[in-house]
Each structure stands twice: as C-alpha cells, then as structure tokens.
Amino acid sequence: MTTRRNFLRASGGALLGAAMVSRAAQGAVPEAPTQGKSDTQPPLQPSSGRPYNPVVTLNGWTLPWRMNGGWKEFHLVAEPVSRQLAPGMIANLWGYNGQSPGPTIECVEGDRVRIFVTNRLPEHTTIHWHGVLLPNGMDGVGGLTQPHIKPGKTFVYEFEMKHSGTFMYHPHADEMVQMAMGMMGSLIVHPRDPAFMRVDRDFAFVMASYEIQPGARTPKVAEMTDFNLWTWNSRVFPGIDPLVVRKGDRVRVRIGNLTMTNHPIHLHGHNFGVALTDGGWVPKAARWPEVTTDVAVGQMRAIEFVADQPGDWAFHCHKSHHTMNAMGHGLPTMIGVDHRGIAQRIVNLIPDYMVMGERGMSDMGEMEMPLPDNTLPMMTGSGPFGPMEMGGMFTVVKVREGLARNDYRDPGWHKHPAGTVAREWTGAPPPASRPSGTKPAASG
Ligand SMILES: [Cu+2]
After folding, report:
1. Sign of torsion, CA 395 401 403 409?
2. pTM for this one?
3. What tens digit of pLDDT does each residue of 314-347 get?
4. Distance 94 CA to ligand 1 centre (A)
5. d(CA 120, CA 150)
6. How far is the CA of 229 from the centre of ligand 1 (A)?
C-alpha cells in the first residue's frame, strides 16, 4: 500500500526526474516535455513529418515529437502528478508528463512511431495502445505481450500507424489502480490525405471517474461503482473549458471512455452524426442523425456537426448524476420533510448547519455553504441568468459569428437578440383548471 509519505516522496522524485530526462542522461532518448497548466492549449501545428490538421485537446495539450531517420519519436513519462479538477480542488493523480490525462499523441496514417516510456511511478506499468492495429509484442499487456516496465526503467514501443482514427492509451498493468488514478490519454491518427474527412475544428477528450472524499486528494482506487467526480480530461464543470467554434464550422468532437460506466453524450441545438467508432470511419451515407450518443466503457466515438446555430449550447453527459460534483452524493431525500424545528436545535450545536432539500435541491446551486477544504459544491457555475446548477461532465459549445480560424478564446456569454429569450408571462393569469370530468380531491 502507498502511504502518504511514500506517495509524496515518489511525487517529488518524479518532478525532478521528468525535468532531468535529457539526451545527456539517457543517451538517444528524446526530451520529455512536461505541462504544468490544466487549461486548453492551442493546437500544435506540425513542424515536421506529414502535414495534418491538428486536434484541440480539451483542457490538455499535444506531445511534441522529433523526427529521427524516418521515425516519429515521442517520450512519455509515467509519474505522479497534481491536477486541478476545477478551481478549489486539487487531486493527487498518476499521469504522464506532468498531467492527467497524459498529452495527446498525434500522428499520421503511415507514420512509423517510436514511443519511449519512462516509468517514474512507485510500481511497474506498461502502455496499451487501445484500438491501434499493431504487432502483438507492441500491444502493451504486461505479462502477456511484454515484461512490465519496472520503476526507473525506460521501454521503447515501435510500430507503424496503419489506419487513421481516434484511439487511446492507458496502462495494462495493475489497471484497476492505475486507471483509477488517472493514467490515460488520447491517441489521434490523422488521415494520410489532409482533405479526407476534413473538419474546421477538431476536439478530443477522454472521460475518467474518480472517488475522492471531500477534503482528501487521492482517489479511492478500490471503488467500483460509486464515484463522486465525473471528468472530461480530468476536469469537472465549471473547470471544463468551453468548445469555442465559428458559426458555419464543421466540428468534430472525439470522445473516449475509460470510466466504469457508459455515458450518453448529449448536444443541444444541433443534430450530429457519429463519424468515427473504435473500428474506423463511418461513411457519410451511413451516419444517422442523433442528439445523444452513448459511449460505452472502452469505446471511442467521434461526433460531427455543422455549427449553424449561434448561441451557448449545453454539451453534457445525460446521466444527471454525472453532471454533479462531489458534495452531491449520499444525501437523504428531504422533499416534503418539515425539519425547521429540529434545525434550530442542531444549529445550537453546529453553527454552520444548513437545512436543505425540503423543496428540492436547487438552493444548493446558489448558496454559499462552507465546504471542507479541497472539494467542490454539488452543483455550481453561474451563467448570464443565474446559477447553472451543474458540475461533472458538462460544458458549453459556444457558436459565434466571424471568429478567426484559430481563435479558441472564450468569447463570453451569448448575446441573445431581443425577444428571443423565454420570459415570464405578465398578462392575465391562466384560469385554475382541472381535467374535465374530475372532481377536486378531498382535502385533509
Ligand atoms: Cu455519464
């Protein structure tokens, strides 16, 4: 078992180790860049190798590479990291190159890739290239296709990217622990022809779930079903950046699921088609229109739509518990319970005690309840009209006119044209009515 002291020692060593990985220290191994920020980094335009249209990793980044004699070389460092899940909450996770998830790896169909993997964890690991068709010995299943990568060791994976698509990478060693700790990343293989299935904006993220008790920082790795943090790229709303798109853009969002349950992903205001599954591209004529698509465990789905409706469009998992944060779990239902009498007596003992829930829980979206350190309110975030009462797997697709091609900056809230917002009816009140043929229920 990892004690807190061991964990901190491993964490400190990892930060030092990542910074020291250099050609001098490791011979021909390429540099392993690290990332300290948890906000969305601009797409990494390819400076060498085959041309492609890069993806935007939501609250993440793409791993730089070097070309070396016809090989595209990357260097991943598996290590303990500190990740801000949203302002107000930091998690001690395991990841790659300074963050969880690890950096997105982008390459092109036909590329020969050489991926160095250095292990700075306190236990062994491997990396499985989920969905990639490759030689068996490169598949990364510890014990089955390769020896485990022991702490301090560096392994090399070499294979050709034979088909384009949306893939993931994650350990195939002590998986329950290592994935519960956040070890995963997106792996994008672009088509050899940049015009094939071209879109204007191309986003990517992986979904992970964590069970972190309020006030704690390290996930409960043995949890199987009752997670309290549902993340996109190890972020929860309001920590997930908006997807900023220009009106008229053809938009792709690539989604991988490494949680323990399925997520029906729902977009407001637009119809989309599933353009890519785990197995490859869906021909355009075979895509049926949807507004929600289920992404099962271990699956990748890429959705595509034309952003033709200006506005701020909710984009979220449709399991309502998955758009809540940590404090929303394990609460009793209080609807209809009058607990005003007992509340005053409790306040005498616990000054911060608050009575809530007898009219529903929406009060929680706006109140300023004292929280334990390092956790997040159940529902939070403010929009232009008030509290949004969201958390977890929720963000906003912001469709705006006339953005520059590479402008992903948050444009603020949508300005609705006059007369286009739902409003209170201020005319004559509706008559009290009941279905014809019924009698009022007996009161009492
Ligand atoms: Cu979900």
Report:
1. negative
2. 0.85
3. 999 999 999 988 765 556 666 666 666 766 776 6
4. 22
5. 9
6. 10
